[in-house]
Amino acid sequence: MAFSFMLLWILLTWHQLETHLCFAQCTSETFSICYVDIANMTSNGESRLRNAFTTRKQVSVNKMIVRNSASGPFLHRFNNLLDSVVYHNYREAIFHLPNGSTITEITVWRAPAMRAFVAGSNAHLKVLSIAHCSLARIPITLPQLTTLKSLSIGDCKLTSFKLDMVLANQMLTTLNMCCNEIRQLVRESPQPHSLKILPNLEYFILYKNKLTQLDLSYFESYPNLTNIDISNNQITTVRTSSPVRLSVVHLNLMQNQLTTFNITGCIMPNITSLLLTGNPLTVIPPVFDNYPNMHLVMSWNTLICETLLPLKEQILSSKLKIQSVHASQCTSGHFYLSLKKMQECCGQSL
Questions:
Q1: What backbone torsions phi and psi does residue 44 show, to the nearest 5 degrees?
Q2: pLDDT per residue over 133-142, tens digit each?
Q3: Residue 243: which residues within 8 A CB-CB, separation 6 or more?
Q4: pTM of the shown model
């Protein structure tokens, strides 16, 4: 029977603390890592790796030759030795996490062929990170991962994000969907009394996607969300379709296409940081009256002197930071313009 072989670079972390002297299994080693050049799982690779795990807390394999898969069967055989696994290159179309696995962290740095992640029943995995893959949607077996706290799917092919796909993962604190092709955030339209939420989510990262509009009411489903990063998208407008109160502290909308910024109807009592750098805004949003402790950064926006006149106090206290002013007499190259420099640009009236 012909075998299919796969080569990958994999870092396996041993969760046990015991160490023994078994240097013959390691091509080289450091204080905590045993380096194995090639592990052929069709011959003596398994015994070699098991011996290597008694040498150091971490085992790094440059090339692994496997009979069927480098995920499911392999992870099952080594389940009692592994706490976390890092795949530098994963070459299969499907990643299988076997039923009952006790691994707590899985990282896949590069998996261009991966189109699916399939998980069995699991009450141990806390961190799942997949990058440079071909996933086009959130894996449908995520509800199996009942203790998952951090989910990252970056540089893949996601086109939308649906709340329902992660609703079962109630322990999530971090969602990182950066560098995909997401064009819409989808929240089902529940009645107010049946609002679906992720109660523990604190960080939501949508950096470098293809969103064109942002409705802040969407984030009502995340009552403890404090950090939102939607920078480097194509957003032209920010609005609030229905009244909402958010716990957000840091809101990053840098490098979008914003021409208007209207947060009427959105209450953010905890917000201290709003980043609007790199947008074609020509006026400063009226945020300081409602949020006097906010720090607003608007570098590389096309601002004229007249818009700054009412905001001398905020400029002086560094609550408003800008980098350039549209004025013929201004030649500043400072990272942030001081009040003195802006007076030189705009005249002493500022």
A1: -100, 15
A2: 999 999 999 9
A3: 217, 265, 266, 267
A4: 0.86
